[in-house]
Amino acid sequence: MGRSAADPHGEEERITNKTIRPVETEEALSGLRDAWDALLERPSGANPFLTYEWISSWWKNFGGKRRLFVLAAFDETGSRMKGIAPFMITRSAGFKVLQFIGTGLSDRLQILLEAGADAVIDELFVLLANRRDVWDIMILRDVPENDPAVACLARLAAQRGWRIRKKRTSVAPYLPVKGSWEEFLATKSSHFRRVRRQKEERLSRPGIDFQVRRIRGPVDDAAITDFETILSRSWKGREPVTAKQGARMGRFYAGFLRAFGKKGWLDLWLGYFDSRPAAYQILFDYKGTVSFYNNAFAKQFERYGIGSVLMARAIEEAFRLGRTECDFLRGDERFKSQWTAEKRYLEDVVLVRNTPRSCAAYAAAVLVERNMERGARYLAHLYRKRTSEPLARAWSPPETGSPGGRGGS
Question: For 140-192, what is each residue's pLDDT tens digit?
Fold first, then answer.
């Protein structure tokens, strides 16, 4: 697309008014819902973490003092959404960081584009380049490695002399679902099959009353209560969080469970011993892929191996239903490798403009990642007191590497 280097702000106005719509209020975000749903129905590389239901639930519970900055791309008529970048602005050490909404709790985040709409990235980039008042540095977590949209951003950034840094941060194992369940089991070792059979038999012994409730539609209050009970009695419920943080997390889970249930995307498994809530498994059944998002079990039932039993049953069900893939999402836990050797990779992507402030923001981000928040704040103080080219060069990112780690919520 043609650009006028002499009038960058005119370019920004043209794109903002006709093609790209910045969304900065919850009311405006809600207004995108129908067009967003329509985009998801078309080939777009969508996953559950890019749905309106997930993004809006996360924002409602964790948005806090962050600022919405969702960029929605429409066609020239303004009626068809061609792509969406669910961004937000987070303040860190006094700098404005552009991130994806859902960072921390989402296993895969990216810019959502309909097939053949790659030119949208060019338009998004122009707007971002002209809105220096909005962000100082871009840090995108858990992006699929070699994502086409990020590759396009890298090309455009290089043309402007900006720096883009990528770092592999996580593995995401997955199991292609091919053939029948029986054929798949035949490919596994006799030890694998024997262990699985023994765990099932253990739950069928006389005197043991183990039942499973499976929910594939609307989620009722009883299921939410049982889920919360299991979570509170698991090791996850013993993690050091404040009462306020725990309440927000509970509202978030209840919100997306209900929303996904209504959409038909949820597959929730609840296990009970003698009618007592014992274990849960949250799956997303979306566009032919079964995603294993979260599971937990009450500590007193640990010896029964309920988690592995529910997982095995869910994988078997994916074969029975003719799904195309079981996606175990991010994390290299050992139990995943017992089922598959196939892997995808996720990376963090950092975009730094060639300005003193953006370079200082990068340096502050590195310090924050190393748990040196006090040093990051002092660096920001120095920047405010003295901005100069020598300082900018000193704070420039190295030729390789990026802030590592995973973003919190």
Answer: 999 999 899 988 988 899 899 998 899 999 999 999 999 999 999 999 999 99
- Outline which parts of the chain fall under CATH 3.40.630.30: 8-170+346-353, 178-323
Residue 58 and residue 255 in contact, taking contact as beta carbons nearer than 8 Å: no
Contact predicate 157/140, CB 8 Å: no
Cross-sheet strand order for the sheet of 112-113: 20-23, 70-74, 81-85, 112-113
Residue 11 above 90 pLDDT?
no
- CATH code of the region 8-170+346-353: 3.40.630.30
- H or E segment to which residue 137 belongs: strand 137-144
CATH of domain 178-323: 3.40.630.30
Region of 305 (left: φ > 0; alpha: ψ -120 to 50; beta: rest) is left
Tell me the sheet residues that pair with 144: 346
* Concatenated DSSP letters of 178-247: -S-HHHHHHTS-HHHHHHHHHHHHHTTSTT--EEEEEE-SPPPHHHHHHHHHHHHHSGGGGS---HHHHH
- Calculated CA dihedral for residues 229, 231, 237, 243, nearest 10 degrees: -60
pLDDT in tens, 178-231: 999 999 999 999 999 999 999 999 999 999 999 999 999 999 999 999 999 999
Query: In the beta sheet, which residues pair with residue 97?
Result: 90, 137
